[in-house]
Design goal:
- This is Peptidase.
- Pfam families: Peptidase_S41.
- It comes from Corallococcus praedator.
- The chain has 546 residues and is an alpha+beta fold.
- Helix content is 27%, strand content 19%.
- The strands form 5 sheets. Strands 6-5-4-3-9-8-7 form a 7-stranded antiparallel β-sheet. The chain has a 7-stranded mixed β-sheet with strand order 11-12-13-14-17-18-22, with helices on both faces.
- Strand 4 and strand 5 form a beta hairpin.
- Helix 9 runs parallel beside helix 10.
- The longest helix is centred in the middle third of the chain and has 20 residues.
Length: 546
């Protein structure tokens, strides 16, 4: 997946949904709906009021991965540009976030360290006993239920900032940088008992998006104004189901694959949010309605045809289907290598409900890439197919792209909304010492390619020997910022900008190919992909022969 990226209003950062109940503890793991929700955090002793429930730990997430053999998620993306005209009430609510928050007096060097993030809306308390996290908006402050050990997976590496009282925290060296400013103490309201009535929850939901959502201009210029217009419907006695429905209906209008609303564990069977299907997924839903079957059944059948088409039509029965069935490789034609990666993670089967770490994922993937690249050594061209890639870990995306890099190159840059005076963080693609291929590469994408799959697309497009073919990617690059609401629900949103080496941001519109190729034609959804790859391979074989 792609990675994520101020002292004032803070938030949390995840990407698309993550694989089954896993990834809130994996920074930079993103996935697209319908991936699964991040693992729940431990319960807290903090007293809650109305709508009480355990809260999901905040943290950046990348595209989640759905089972290639199972149902597919519908995905949508965000955009930004014109500014919505907000009613005076909303303007007043957000005034506190419009300027930097005060440091709350002199810092006590002997007490706990309290740090306020630039962007993301986090307040991090560091003590000898461990870490605590709070979420702060202009509408209030509330604790995060994540344990200290879970928080160390996001903030475990520290480095001095550019000046005294400024510090950078990282999940791991080389990963997303989160910049914090030291403040005197935790604001008093952060651990105060609060009865979170429906109107107060509405304020937190509204402020969270106003302060952190990065793509209103592209996806919903008037979204905040429309949400404010719903305020009269929200009363102190409003039922949880009605409030959840109001939030869900508002979020669907953004059409963002990295936006989600997750109910607490106790309500997850009755309160659900589903993003509307678009593109190829919308065609599959139409097929389900036409044939009277469930969307899940149609998607499973379609994925089976996709898999069989690669193995039989593209690789002609001589291919490899490995890495927990997430990777296909082989020769599509004499001299034409073929590598298909369906997710940027999931290469290790989960055991006992625990997901593999990025390090474990790479340990499982690297030997597969070694074997494939060694086999491709004499190839005249290689097709790298991520047309059905659902995202995952950015570090995995970069590791695969490094197999095609001949020298260090800027892959992409990223920064977060509200991260004041924090320069964009650059991610450099560095050549690997392991087997690699530096010849001509044809990168294949589609509207399904999303999140970390799109970060991979940015990295590959930075290489001069790569030609991008297919259709536009999904357009959901930002990591998912995971924000627990004080009542136990959780919202996911896009708060980061990813730009290519030329400074272009493809969020909400997708990265366009240099060479159009209809990968999933409406007239032949089941077999069109295999036939398109077969035709591409044959054309490259003919070109190599000449």
């Amino acid at each position: 997946m792609a990675l994520m990226d101020s002292p004032r209003c803070s938030a949390t950062t995840p990407r698309l949904n993550a694989p089954a109940r896993a990834s809130s503890t994996h920074p930079n793991f993103r996935a697209t709906p319908p991936m699964r929700t991040p693992r729940r955090g431990h319960g807290t002793n903090t007293r809650r009021g109305v709508y009480s429930a355990p809260v999901v730990p905040p943290r950046p997430v990348r595209d989640g991965m759905s089972d290639p053999e199972g149902s597919l998620p519908a995905m949508n993306l965000p955009r930004l540009r014109p500014r919505a005209v907000l009613p005076l009430l909303l303007v007043g609510l957000l005034t506190a976030c419009a300027t930097s928050r005060p440091a709350l007096g002199p810092v006590d060097a002997s007490g706990p360290e309290v740090w306020r993030s630039r962007g993301y809306g986090w307040l991090l308390t560091v003590t000898p006993e461990g870490l605590r996290l709070h979420h702060e908006t202009a509408a209030g402050c509330s604790p995060d239920p994540a344990s200290s050990s879970e928080l160390k997976q996001l903030f475990g590496v520290q480095a001095p900032g550019p000046s005294e009282g400024v510090r950078d925290f990282f999940p791991a060296p080389g990963e997303t940088r989160y910049r914090f400013d030291r403040i005197a103490a935790l604001p008093e309201d952060c651990d105060r008992h609060t009865v979170w009535s429906a109107p107060k929850l509405f304020n937190v939901f509204q402020a969270t998006f106003a302060e952190h959502y990065a793509y209103f201009p592209e996806r919903g210029p008037e979204w905040l104004a429309r949400l404010e217009a719903e305020r009269p419907r929200v009363s102190p006695g409003m039922e949880g189901r009605a409030l959840f429905t109001l939030f869900a209906e508002a979020l669907r209008t953004l059409g963002d694959a990295h936006v989600a609303l997750v109910a607490d564990d106790a309500s997850s069977d009755t309160l659900t949010y589903e993003e509307r299907a678009t593109g190829t997924f919308a065609l599959l839903e139409q097929e389900a309605r036409r044939t009277g079957r469930t969307p899940k059944a149609v998607q499973k059948e379609w994925l089976g045809a996709y898999r069989d088409g690669i193995l039989q039509t593209v690789l002609r029965g001589q291919g490899h289907h490995v890495a927990n069935q997430r990777v296909f490789w082989g020769f599509a034609a004499p001299g034409v290598g073929y590598l298909n990666v369906m997710t940027m993670g999931g290469f290790v089967a989960a055991t006992d409900g625990d997901d593999a770490t990025p390090e474990q994922e790479l340990a499982a993937l690297e030997p597969v890439l070694d074997e494939a690249m060694a086999a491709f050594a004499g190839a005249t061209a290689v097709i790298v197919d991520v047309s059905n890639n659902r995202g995952g870990h950015d570090v995995v995306a970069r590791a695969i792209a490094a197999r095609f890099a001949d020298r260090p190159r800027l892959a992409y840059s990223k920064w977060a909304k509200g991260a004041k005076d924090v320069p964009p963080q650059e991610f450099i693609l560095t050549p690997t010492s392991r087997p690699a291929f530096h010849g001509p590469v044809h990168l294949v994408t589609s509207d399904i390619t999303v999140s970390a799959g799109e970060v991979f697309t940015l990295a590959m497009r930075a290489l001069p020997q790569v030609r991008h073919v297919g259709t536009r990617t999904r357009g959901s690059f930002s990591d998912v910022l995971v924000k627990p609401l004080p009542n136990g629900w959780t919202v996911h949103l896009s708060n980061e900008h990813y730009t290519d080496p030329k400074g272009e941001d493809f969020e909400a519109r997708g990265a366009p190919p240099q060479q159009p190729l209809d990968v999933f034609p409406e007239a032949d959804l089941s077999h069109g992909h295999a036939r398109a790859m077969r035709a591409l391979a044959d054309s490259l074989e003919a070109r190599g022969a000449k």
